[in-house]
Amino acid sequence: MINNPKQSIGIGLIGLGVIAGQVVNVLIDKADVLAEQVGCPLVLRKVKVLPQDLSRPQAQAMDSQLFTTDADEFFATPGIDIVVEAIGGESPAVEYLSRALSDGKHVVTSNKEVIAKHGVELLTLAQQHGVGLRYEAAVGGGIPLISPFQRDLLANNISGIYAIINGTTNFILTRMARDGVDFASALNRAQELGYAEPNPRDDVEGIDATYKLAILASLAFHRQVRPEDIYREGISRLSSRDFQYARELGFAIKLLAIAKQSDESIEVRVHPVFIPEDSLLAKVDGVYNAILVEGDLVGKVLFFGEGAGALPTSSAVIADVVAAAQDVILGIGSKIRWGAQPGKGIKPMSEIKTRYYLRLNVADRPGVLAQIAKVLGDRLISISSVIQKLTDTAAQTAEIVIMTHPAQEKAMKQALEEVAQLTVVEEISNFIRVEE
Ligand code: HSE
Questions:
Q1: Is the pLDDT of residue 400 over 90?
Q2: Structural domains of the chain sorted by starting position, each given as residue range(s) with its CATH number in brackets
Q3: H or E stretch covering 243
Q4: Stated pTM of the model
Q5: CA–CA distance from 194 to each of 29, 30, 47, 176 (Å)?
Q6: How far is the centre of ligand 1, averaged over its atoms, from the C-alpha of 390 (Å)?
Q7: Residue nearest (by alpha carbon) to ligand 1 atom 8
């Protein structure tokens, strides 16, 4: 039996947005259950807000003494054991987290950008000061991921992660596939429903997914994978025609975050892919997230659930708070951190090997396909199937779709440059990698 010297555990909260607001609700609504788990009550001692947060109905309903807009006052508040940060963005969040850890406070954050970019330095700081840094809510909302990688999957050599980790883009792609609408209209709907931000760049360009993959890959491969190590393409260049062809060929289109490990190197990328329509990930629709992990012992494990939203995210934040509170009582800090050591190299994108889908607009006359096939053949790219569908008789153009066998990215990029130079080729409308 642990002798608990503390009467309560003090929480300092940074932010009062939708996630932080829900964290406050849970601390109040589930106070008894949480106190039972921890061994003493969790008490909210101070909330660092922006002036505009004070007019929120939730703030108005709370004791005004709890709030401060001044960071120095927040950090000087006595009795804070755990700082919970839920403001998002890189700065000032990273400065706040560094300050909290340096002050010997345990930290819980939902901030994927800060963890992806500064995880190693923050985890090192936490270790130096004998405290913990927890970030379960940073990836996949309420889906347990960080904890399984740190504990349950530890005995595995992880060979691959294949993840739908951005709900906004998965919602957009699902609408494009189901309703045949174009990207702009699907994005518009996502914005109307509040899934996509007014400025959707981080989601639709794959930046959000890149932060999340950087965190998962660092945990899985026990080495630091930085966001800039990850090859990234967004979904804005996809057209409804790509979805029609994908369906005809037996594929779904998803924005996948992929991390693979071989004996020599690590491969990390975020981009749209064709995946077989009967695969598990192809069936993950709407705003849901799913993360498929392959380990040498465990085989394939699929994590599925709501990857965003106040309720699921608060589930992960509060679990971290309870774990941190238990550590406060035990007087221990983080034991697990990513190595900053370089480890295996990151495979350059030019060296990856996949199958490709190509959609081209070409002149509709004899010998055109032969010219394209020759360029591909000269680069050892083998064609597996060809479709010709749309023929504009007036303009004498046709749309052709080529599926290839596995080929090296470098060869494919060179071939595409050469194909684009052919006078018979009006446009390379799209090319999408295939993941099987
Ligand atoms: N914007 C993210 C998504 C949720 O659409 O999944 C926050 O990580």
A1: yes
A2: 9-141+310-330 (3.40.50.720), 146-304 (3.30.360.10), 350-434 (3.30.70.260)
A3: helix 240-249
A4: 0.96
A5: 26, 28, 26, 18
A6: 37
A7: 308
